[in-house]
Write a structure and sequence with these properties.
By secondary structure, the chain is of the alpha/beta class. The chain is 39% helix and 25% strand. The longest helix is centred in the N-terminal third of the chain and has 17 residues. The structure holds S-adenosylmethionine.
Length: 294
């Protein structure tokens, strides 16, 4: 299993939230507003690869309606951390007594949160999306969302996903492969090439689409019944992000050292220098695909 630590997810959360493309976010909020005006009951949003719930914390407070969120991740520790973090984040939390009983094998009790006077019911589902995709997408929802997830999946999985998807999709912070580090260094392009190679490794779904995922997703959805818009959401990291810059440099350096494209010495040297970098821009893209039948 390709695991993500709670420390890493927590370290990146501030940069993630401020980098989301605001135009796309407005379109998503307008869409949800329309849906809410046509239905009774909470808006239902499913978050794929939810980690500790960062995507919910970014989006839910902007939605002025009661909501039900289903957080799906294959890592039970992240889901437990999500429940704990969300209860602290909320203005109030009403703890459910019953465990979810269904074939989705969740063992984490749902919780009802109160944030800005709206109720947010949160369900936590432990599921491997590499193998259990169709069941997830068959669930009725108003929006499927994901953050920092789609670059992990394989081209075949993307095809299958788009074939089965019948709900509007909002995905943020998919890595697009563009990086600029300050000050520039002659090793940067060699390291980036090796990093892209590493990004294409199997992350549990087959060889990963990595930086090509978003473009592929866009093309596949456009030929189906979706109206698609995209927008950039780069991390612009500077003096307030020194801890994140350091972790990022260490992570990239370790990843490229695992490829045979650069030597361990070069990877180490680059990582040590970049850990002290003044700033960097890391490219991401967001996508909103509105299902025409909504
Ligand atoms: C980069 S993290 C992003 C987490 C979260 N969306 C955020 O923005 O903080 C990718 C997430 O996808 C989850 N993930 C990876 N492969 C998965 C799979 N096959 N099934 C379900 N979740 C998966 C990981 O456990 C992790 O939480």
């Amino acid at each position: 299993m390709n695991s993500f630590s709670t420390d890493w997810l927590s370290l990146r959360e501030g940069a993630d939230h401020r980098s989301r493309n605001s135009f796309l976010q407005e379109q998503v909020l307008k869409y949800l507003e329309q849906i809410a005006s046509l239905k009774n009951g909470p808006l239902h949003i499913i978050d794929l690869g939810s980690g500790t719930g960062s995507n919910l914390r970014a989006l839910a407070p902007l939605i002025h309606h009661n909501q039900k969120w289903t957080l799906i991740d294959y890592d039970p520790l992240l889901l437990q951390a999500a429940r704990k973090t969300l209860c602290i984040w909320a203005d109030d939390a009403i703890y459910g007594k019953a465990k979810i009983k269904s074939d989705c094998d969740s063992t984490i009790t749902p919780v009802t949160l109160v944030k800005n006077n709206y109720e947010i019911i949160v369900h936590f589902i432990q599921r491997d999306l590499a193998s259990d995709l169709e069941f997830t997408l068959s669930e009725s929802a108003d929006l499927i969302t994901a953050a920092a997830f789609f670059d992990l999946v394989a081209f075949d999985w993307l095809e299958q996903f788009c074939k089965v998807l019948k709900t509007s999709l909002y995905t943020v912070l998919t890595y697009n492969g563009k990086e600029t580090w300050l000050p520039s260094d002659s090793l940067d392009s060699e390291i980036l090439e090796a990093f892209h190679f590493h990004q294409g490794r199997d992350k549990g779904f087959g060889p990963a689409a990595g930086p090509l995922a978003l473009n592929n997703l866009e093309l596949l959805l456009k030929i189906r019944e979706f109206e698609v818009i995209t927008g950039s959401s780069p991390w612009m990291l500077g003096s307030r992000d020194t801890a994140l810059i350091k972790e990022l440099a260490v992570g990239i350096s370790k990843a490229v050292a695992e490829t045979s494209l650069v030597t361990h010495e070069i990877a180490k040297k680059w990582g040590e220098q970049r850990a002290k970098s003044l700033g960097c821009e890391i490219g991401h893209d967001d996508l909103f695909a509105r299902y025409e039948k909504n």
